[in-house]
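Hi,

Apologies if this is the wrong queue. I'm a grad student, and the batch job for GTPase Era from Blastochloris viridis produced an output file that my downstream script rejects. I'm not sure whether the problem is my script or the file. Here is the sequence I used:
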Amino acid sequence: MPETLPVARRCGFIALIGAPNAGKSTLVNALVGAKVVIVTHKVQTTRALVRGIALEGDAQLVLIDTPGIFPPKRRLDRAMVSTAWSGAADADMVCLLIDARRGVDEEIEAILGKLKQVSHSLVLVLTKVDVVADKPRLLELAADLNVRLPFEATFMVSGATGSGVDELRSWLAQRVPAGPWHYPEDQVSDAPLRSLAAEITREKLTLRLHEELPYQSTVETTSWQTRSDGSVRIEQTVFVERESQRKIVLGKGGEAIKAISMAARKEIAEAVDAKVHLFLFVKVREGWGNDPERYREMGLEFPRE
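Support response: The file is valid. Your script probably expects a header line. Output copied below for reference.
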């Protein structure tokens, strides 16, 4: 029998960067075809680099969802922005996502200026185009941005509706370098289940409390036990900085934390494909935003200055 030649595979790391709420997490989930990163309407939801893994033909796309880039005010802000730029520097290709409704403002101008120092291939992605009524304005925005930077291609997408997502995935698959895949075929994220579970709970926390939720709050998975019946017992701690914040998270009669736990447990069970027993605790840890250990738990480098 004739010898079967190995399939020529391709694999590349693609960083998605942009201002907060540009739609990076929604687009990563759409490209992967599964929920691998959390999504909320609250800005700066993404804190660390999360890698979603998409397959397109013989290509494996490692999509790096980065924190939104904005003028940092706090130590946590500085860590997030630094992490976003490190993700761009380490990637094979960089996609700049711009909310088509927002256009170019001071934050975008600053990002464009810094992108001039990035030597990788650049791709422009205008997001949320489904909610832009003035379609000619999209063409004007794209033309203006292509004058400013040498983008290899421009895409107009909606992560919410899926419009343009297949075209973007196909184009990226053709452009990533030849080489072996970095992850197994059935893996959709590089995040450990413990981390994904904590992020799911943080998402439900944010969606439930909206503006009431203190910015300086985080969730950690402190215990993970697989029981003899195949179910998983998980303990998580929500850390806040003040007692008043703890009361907000608990809610009257524990109503808020019960609703958060119920929503998180359902989604974590889907992610681990097993019955989940979830126990949430809320603790006050003053000044956790200046604690290096908390940054390591979140996958961030602790800024010394």
